[in-house]
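ok trying this again, last paste got cut off
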Amino acid sequence: KDLVIFYRSSKKLFYILKMASGVSVDNECETQFNELKMKHKHKYVIFKLSDDSKKIEVDCVSSHDKEGTDTKYNEFVGKLRGAKKDDKPDCRYAAYDFEYFDDKTKNTGNKIVFVTWAPDTASIKQKMLYTSSKKALE
């Protein structure tokens, strides 16, 4: 069953969104994620909902070149903060290849971090749609 969310404003009840969003995932998302995870070809992949909000698609990817980790991270955060839809702040999903150094073993390692970006200034509808569609990426 679909869970329906309502929002009360000025004593009126407005239908906002069905929680079972029915959003699909574009095949390119899986391809780019696997290149990040298996081949470490990308430092990050950012995903977004299509303009019609029916599927999740790749927004942008980053190369995994020799630039400093701080530079790539700042670029990543800048892309998330700059995400727009209709000139308004928008939500995004992202996978980031996080590199770390273990002091005990003196080895470096990588972990893939999944981020759901939902800024306070994004619309409630977009935040709810992104939250309810996140399961499609799992």
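PB: full thing came through this time. The CA atoms of residues 83 and 90 lie 5 Å apart.
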